[in-house]
TrEMBL record:
<feature type="region of interest" description="Disordered">
    <location>
        <begin position="1"/>
        <end position="24"/>
    </location>
</feature>
<feature type="domain" description="Heparan-alpha-glucosaminide N-acetyltransferase catalytic">
    <location>
        <begin position="253"/>
        <end position="372"/>
    </location>
</feature>
<feature type="transmembrane region" description="Helical">
    <location>
        <begin position="586"/>
        <end position="603"/>
    </location>
</feature>
<feature type="transmembrane region" description="Helical">
    <location>
        <begin position="487"/>
        <end position="507"/>
    </location>
</feature>
<feature type="transmembrane region" description="Helical">
    <location>
        <begin position="623"/>
        <end position="641"/>
    </location>
</feature>
<feature type="transmembrane region" description="Helical">
    <location>
        <begin position="180"/>
        <end position="204"/>
    </location>
</feature>
<feature type="transmembrane region" description="Helical">
    <location>
        <begin position="295"/>
        <end position="316"/>
    </location>
</feature>
<feature type="transmembrane region" description="Helical">
    <location>
        <begin position="34"/>
        <end position="54"/>
    </location>
</feature>
<feature type="transmembrane region" description="Helical">
    <location>
        <begin position="328"/>
        <end position="347"/>
    </location>
</feature>
<dbReference type="Pfam" id="PF07786">
    <property type="entry name" value="HGSNAT_cat"/>
</dbReference>
<keyword id="KW-0812">Transmembrane</keyword>
<protein>
    <recommendedName>
        <fullName>Heparan-alpha-glucosaminide N-acetyltransferase catalytic domain-containing protein</fullName>
    </recommendedName>
</protein>
<feature type="compositionally biased region" description="Polar residues">
    <location>
        <begin position="15"/>
        <end position="24"/>
    </location>
</feature>
<feature type="transmembrane region" description="Helical">
    <location>
        <begin position="401"/>
        <end position="424"/>
    </location>
</feature>
<keyword id="KW-1133">Transmembrane helix</keyword>
<feature type="transmembrane region" description="Helical">
    <location>
        <begin position="362"/>
        <end position="380"/>
    </location>
</feature>
<feature type="transmembrane region" description="Helical">
    <location>
        <begin position="556"/>
        <end position="574"/>
    </location>
</feature>
Length: 649
């Protein structure tokens, strides 16, 4: 919120089935045609939507004297009182925060005369405005209101019979624009595209259409290759034309896992590119959840599931545990150093400077969690699960009880997190502090951002080697550096990955028993949900341990793991059990996740992922740019999949 000094009277602020092999060739060609056709439609529709939605706000002309940005509105405060008033504001999203000054409105120049000042106010969350008399600091009135983007409002402060009181009323001078309309348009575009692809896929799989496309799209050379290298086209094999995906030949590569990973990755790329500059596509300021807070833990969870399946497969092939451990260690080191390079992009301008080198990061945390969980799994994983006694007392809980040593290690790690968080003395801060600092907690602990987690990072790494602009800086106005991928939170990320490992154990132990797998997923989701409800008291800020992404709190882990088990259950049922969905397009980036993540970070500032917008204060143009950039990475991952190019470390 911003304002300028008022003038004397009024100031202003700015603020087919012809043969088995031929069928395979046809299916591949048709899938490629459908995917390319879909990609072209996405880009064309996005280009058409951008100018359309960008001009929607223009149906509401602005006052020439006010230049509004995104998520801002104009508020004119009219003072009919014979005394100067001080206006303060407080966001309802800011827990236990101090009121912040908005500005001063001079007293009316005379009886019946009004003094007015224009301000810009935020429209992201409801605000409480407080008007005080400057003479005795007496509260005159409070008004709670949720302003709309680019709306124009007036707040009138008038005298009542009692001169110590004032009547405050809010008037809407101009209705706000619907800033969420671009999201609706984008959803309709992608939903329409999905329907078109589904219809097109169904039509293209019809035998007459498939034969026609095969005759048109293939030459005599292709027919010769089929006869000489792939076998006679007259030989037929059974094909499951009713299913959009081929049957799984190995439990170690479930399509649902890659689909879930790809879904998380696509959302991560979208929010990292800006998410249309909507607040709910950005990380929460402190306690609570937004869309951006969901995806990284889900990625960690799926990594744990993949560790379980890959380790079990390697052990069955006879690979030694020692050799597997060194491979895990090498991969972790690679991930860590790649992460350091990505989050310190100034290396393009010369040697890395140690003075401001940020050490923690997303890939660094993935490396630590991967190393810890893979090491634990190598310690307890069974070479074979075929000879387990069915009459043993622990058989019903085999996927859990057989790995109790690893569970003890994980419980010990989370206990360490709890002890350090709630018992470690932090200078000038209350023990067990979980707040954001700044103006939170009524401004009592401005330099205590993150409590023990922030203190440990600053002590071990130094203030200049951690993230300098935490999400709490905007709303809570915190000034201390704080890293959401810091040291203490890495312990919790191991727990998150280990819960994903548990999902992998369930899949391994109940191979092909879909109902048992889904029942177990549901049970784990239910138990973790109950734990979250207890820890948070079903509230955002009032619980014992609030859900907090910055801290990677215990309730954050249990809540996101609950969501992950439920999401994996749904995707597993739809993709691997019923085969209603192939997992496309999310399956493709899920098969090349490291490449997509690293690539989107490196090329973020380059065309076609970013371009100069005609209006940088338009949600519609930002949303279009971010959706196009994300869609391009999906198309790139599809092309790499078809070319069988996968970057693995």
């Amino acid at each position: 919120m911003r304002t300028e000094k008022p003038n004397k009277q009024k100031g202003r602020g700015a603020h087919s089935n012809n043969g088995g092999d031929r069928t395979e060739v046809q299916n591949t060609q048709l899938d490629s045609q459908i995917m390319i056709f879909s990609a072209v439609i996405v880009l064309l529709l996005a280009a058409c939507v951008a100018p359309l939605t960008a001009q929607l706000p223009l149906s509401h002309p602005h006052r020439k004297s006010i230049v509004l940005k995104m998520d801002e509105a104009t508020l004119t405060i009219n003072n009919e009182l014979q005394r100067e008033i001080v206006v303060s504001w407080l966001s309802d999203h800011c827990f236990q925060c101090l009121f912040q000054p908005l500005g001063v409105v001079p007293a009316g120049p005379g009886p019946g005369m009004t003094s007015s000042v224009d301000f810009t106010v935020s429209t992201q969350h409801p605000l409480t405005l407080q008007l005080n008399s400057t003479a005795v600091n007496l509260q005159l009135c409070r008004v709670n209101f949720h302003f709309g983007e680019h709306g124009n409002y007036s707040l009138w402060a008038k005298n009542l019979n009692d001169s110590a009181e004032a009547n405050c009323s809010m008037v809407t001078n101009k209705e706000s624009v619907n800033s969420y309309l671009p999201i609706l348009v984008a959803l309709l575009v992608y939903a329409g595209l999905a329907i078109l692809v589904a219809i097109g896929s169904t039509i293209m799989r019809l035998d007459p259409v498939r034969n026609l496309m095969f005759q048109i799209g293939n030459t005599m050379e292709t027919e010769r290759l089929i006869n000489s290298e792939l076998g006679s086209p007259n030989r037929t094999v059974e094909s499951s034309s009713d299913s959009p995906i081929p049957p799984n030949t190995s439990i170690s590569r479930l399509r649902s896992l890659d689909t879930f990973r790809g879904l998380s990755l696509v959302i991560m790329v979208f929010v990292n590119y800006g998410g249309g500059r909507y607040w709910f596509f950005r990380h929460e300021s402190w306690n609570g959840l937004t869309v951006a807070d969901l995806v990284f833990p889900w990625f960690v969870f799926i990594m744990g599931t993949s560790i379980s399946l890959s380790v079990s497969s390697a052990l069955r092939r006879g690979t030694s545990r020692c050799r597997l451990f060194w491979k895990v260690l090498w991969r972790s080191l690679q991930l860590f150093f790649i992460g350091v390079l990505i989050i310190n992009p100034n290396y393009c301008q010369g040697p890395l400077s140690w003075d401001t080198l940020r050490i923690p990061g997303v890939l660094q945390r993935l490396a630590f969690a991967y190393l810890a969980v893979a090491a634990l799994d190598l310690m307890v994983a069974k070479t074979s699960l075929d000879n387990l006694p069915t009459d043993a007392w622990w058989y019903l809980g085999q996927d859990f009880l057989l790995y109790w040593p690893a569970w003890l290690c994980v419980i010990a790690m989370e206990t360490l997190w709890l002890c350090l968080t709630f018992l470690l003395p932090v200078p000038d801060c209350p023990t067990g502090y979980l707040g954001p600092g700044g103006i939170g907690d009524f401004g009592q602990y401005p330099n205590c951002t993150g409590g023990a987690a922030g203190y440990i990072d600053r002590w071990l790494l130094g203030e200049s080697h951690i993230y300098q602009n935490p999400s709490s800086r905007v709303l809570y106005q915190s000034t201390m550096p704080y890293d959401p991928e810091g040291v203490l939170g890495s312990l919790s990320s191991v727990v998150m990955a280990f819960l994903g490992l548990q999902a992998g154990k369930i899949i391994s132990h109940y191979k092909d028993l879909h109902s048992k797998i889904m029942t177990r997923f549901l049970m784990w989701g239910f138990v973790l949900g109950i734990i979250s409800a207890i820890l948070t008291k079903c509230s955002k800020d009032q619980g014992f341990i609030p859900v907090n992404k910055n801290l990677w709190s215990l309730s954050y882990i249990t809540t996101l793991s609950c969501f992950a088990f439920v999401m994996l259950l749904i995707i597993y049922y739809i993709v691997d059990v019923r085969r209603w969905w192939s997992g496309a397009p999310f399956f493709y980036p899920g098969m090349n996740s490291i490449l997509v993540y690293v690539g989107h970070e490196i090329f973020e500032e380059y065309f076609p992922f970013r371009w100069r917008m005609s209006n940088s204060q338009s949600h519609a143009q930002h949303l279009t740019q971010n959706l196009v950039a994300t869609s391009i990475w999906v198309v790139i991952s599809y092309i790499l999949y078809k070319k069988k190019i996968f970057w693995k470390i």
